[in-house]
Amino acid sequence: MASPLLANIYLHRFDEWYSQHYGIPDKKRDKRAYETWQRRRFKGKDQAAVQMFRYADDWIFVIRGTSAQAQCIKEACKTFLRDEMG
Fold first, then answer.
1. Rounded CA separation 76/16 (Å)
2. pTM, whole model, 2 decimals?
């Protein structure tokens, strides 16, 4: 039982980094940021829609975009985890 709790504490910095770089802005909290994000998505400005589901040290990314965008996101996550969390 302690292992998932410790993983959540340890990976909190990763969650924050993900939200800053790939999270979809909350429409209710920051309507302007959400509308900007939405315009960029619909204009095809190299911005994939990404959603992360995480429990402890298991996670999955759902990416709506190109395979090149998905690979770029994967590499960015690996780099962050290696350089900032390792």
1. 14
2. 0.75
Residue 79 three-state SS = helix
Q: What number of CA atoms fall less than 13 Å from residue 75's CA on the CB side?
A: 6
Compute the distance between CA of residue 47 and CA of residue 73 in angstroms, rounded to an integer.
10
- Integer Cα distance of 76 and 1 in angstroms: 30
Asked if residue 17 lies in contact with residue 67, where contact means CB atoms within 8 angstroms, the answer is no
Rounded to an integer, the average pLDDT of 9-26 is 89
Q: Tell me the angle at which helices 12-21 and 2-10 cross, rounded to the nearest 10 degrees.
A: 40
Start-to-end Cα distance in the chain? 23
Interhelix angle 67-83/12-21, nearest 10 degrees = 140
| Cβ contact 56:46 at 8 Å | no
Q: How far apart are CA 7 and CA 58, in angstroms?
A: 9
